[in-house]
Specification:
Alkaline Phosphatase, subunit A, alpha/beta, 13 helices
Length: 280
């Protein structure tokens, strides 16, 4: 591996909320320690569809994940599999859908909730949660994000991950419950920013480039899945030494997978046709 990289995905945060409520991230942009762009998701802008596209670099119409109800082991090359082919170690702290897409399906609560498999051709070190019992209005069923950030940090320290991915549904769930123009979402985004902030210097000091982003946006009524800037657009923050496009460039979500691989020095498979947006 040429470098090490962590991809942090905060589910369901629209572009406007990133730029006005994440004061620590914006502070690093102001100081020049991070750069930020707007990125647009695939369609449908539904969570599972975006998860599969983020790591395969192909649209839902190609990988076949059309909704949160179609969960299976994807067939296309993905970031985890390509890092493994290049001899790197991978890890994920995320919702169980990620394990099913990039390790094995269906998800087995006992077998797959936590595993360390050095020879796995996908995810070597997995820590997953299921959100079983989730209800938009009553039971959120998301773990503490500090616990998730700490778990990823532990995996990095224990196993020396070359590529690690973290995904949390907290803000997506809050958006579905409260929608976005409200005190509850202001507080939730500010708290997420405060919980994430101490870990970014830790990860940078450990030698990782860091990308913080979302899978999709969310409308003012708490919806996503369709088209439009509110449902599709989100911010992408980059901490690293790579050269990127001008700040006003709209990034394509399909470019994220080849960008991650190129930063790691891993060959990009032919199925990932989008151009990486970072270079040396």
């Amino acid at each position: 591996m040429d470098r090490k990289l962590l991809l942090i995905i905060l589910d369901g945060v629209p572009y406007a909320n990133w730029r006005r409520l994440f004061g620590n991230l914006e502070g690093w942009v102001a100081s020049g320690e991070a750069r930020v762009w707007r990125m647009r998701s695939v369609l449908p802008s539904t969570s599972a569809c975006c998860y599969a596209s983020i790591h395969t670099g192909v649209t839902p119409q190609v990988h076949g994940v059309y909704s949160n109800g179609s969960i299976f082991r994807v067939k296309q090359p993905d970031v985890f599999s390509e890092v493994r082919k290049a001899g790197g170690l991978t890890g994920a702290v995320a919702h169980s859908f990620w394990s099913e897409f990039f390790c094995r399906a269906p998800f087995d609560f006992v077998r797959d909730i936590e595993y360390d498999e050095p020879d796995n051709p996908g995810i070597n070190h997995g820590r997953f949660h299921t959100m079983t019992g989730y209800d938009n209005l009553i039971n959120q069923m998301t773990p503490s994000d500090v616990d998730l950030f700490a778990t990823l940090t532990s995996l990095c320290r224990r196993f020396g991950l070359d590529y690690g991915m973290l995904h949390t549904c907290t803000l997506d769930s809050m958006g579905h419950r409260y929608h976005h123009e409200c005190v509850e979402m202001d507080d939730a985004c500010a708290l997420m920013d405060a919980m994430l902030a101490p870990f970014i210097p830790m990860w940078r000091e450990a030698g990782y480039e860091v990308i913080v982003t979302a899978d999709h946006g969310q409308s003012s009524r708490g919806h996503h899945g369709g088209a439009g800037e509110d449902q599709q657009d989100f911010a992408l923050y980059y901490f690293g030494e790579g050269t990127g496009p001008s700040r006003d460039t709209l990034l394509d979500q399909l470019s994220l997978a080849p960008t991650v691989l190129s930063r790691l020095g891993v060959p990009v498979p032919e199925t990932m046709k989008a151009t990486p947006f970072l270079s040396d």
